[in-house]
Design goal:
The protein is an all-alpha fold. The protein has one domain. It is about 85% helix and about 0% strand. Helix 5 packs antiparallel against helix 10 and helix 6 packs antiparallel against helix 7. The relative contact order is 0.20. Keywords: Cell membrane, Membrane, Transmembrane, Transmembrane helix, Transport. Belongs to the 4-toluene sulfonate uptake permease (TSUP) (TC 2.A.102) family. Pfam families: TauE. It is found in: Cell membrane. It is a multi-pass membrane protein.
């Protein structure tokens, strides 16, 4: 019995740390929350359960982000991304329950790294065609459903459309928030999300609120050039994590 409580305590501690640091970074940059949180969570729980927890807190944060950032969101691009994301999300969520496509995860990591390197080397990168954006949108939904890590793909699409950090960040909040709400619905329908995750999330909630507050404070103090470099750095790191982490 004592061993059981020790395991539960460790699980809650790592859950709190993962959600806090994940959403602290998410609030600053607009994405990468799941990529920061997953290494903490996967140490003490399976992937499906980790995705459930991340989806819960994404869904809670979505109304907050929409209220704060609606005026800065690219609404047209957001609508386009939603259409493609629905297709990918349904496929990805089904695969999440019945399998774990590790090879695809590593391929995503390589793609992200090549994109960052190309951005750094080529100061005037070509605009992504509408067809490429369509495909990336589907894969964004797919990887959001499977690994809760579709953010980097959405970041590539949105960054290609705007150099305005405020618009980038706000639109990232928009697409990741709506995708997370859709993912919650799919996880409930598949029986993956249970009352256990909801109960444990109550213990994490104060730390999650603190992460949103402190992240917003940090964002307001950051220079836009530094923020752009931080976004590219997080993309690069996320690519490496996806390749290395099983």
């Amino acid at each position: 019995m004592q061993h059981y409580f020790c395991i539960m305590d460790l699980m809650l501690v790592l859950l709190i740390l993962g959600i806090f640091f994940g959403f602290f970074v998410q609030t600053i940059t607009g994405f990468a929350g799941a990529l920061v949180a997953l290494p903490f969570l996967l140490f003490v729980m399976p992937l499906v359960e980790a995705v459930c927890y991340i989806s819960i807190f994404y869904s809670i944060s979505t109304p907050v982000y929409f209220y704060r950032e609606w005026k800065n969101m690219d609404k047209l691009l957001l609508r386009k991304l939603l259409v493609t994301s629905v297709i990918g999300l349904i496929i990805g969520s089904i695969i999440l329950v019945f399998g774990q496509p590790t090879i695809l995860k590593k391929a995503l990591g390589l793609f992200i790294i090549f994109f960052v390197l190309n951005t750094l080397i080529n100061k005037n990168p070509k605009q992504l065609s509408s067809n490429i954006q369509f495909v990336l949108g589907i894969f964004g939904g797919f990887f959001s459903g499977v690994f809760s890590t579709g953010g980097p793909l959405y970041a590539i699409i949105i960054r290609n459309e705007t150099n305005d950090v405020k618009v980038f960040r706000a639109t990232m909040f928009g697409i990741l928030g709506v995708v997370s709400i859709m993912r919650i619905s799919v996880l409930i329908a598949e029986g993956a999300l249970t009352t256990i995750e909801l109960h444990n999330s109550l213990y994490v909630l104060p730390f999650f609120v603190a992460a949103l507050y402190l992240g917003k404070k940090a964002y307001l103090k950051l220079d836009e050039k530094i923020l752009r470099k931080l976004i590219l750095s997080l993309l690069f790191i996320s690519g490496i994590i996806l390749i290395v982490k099983n």
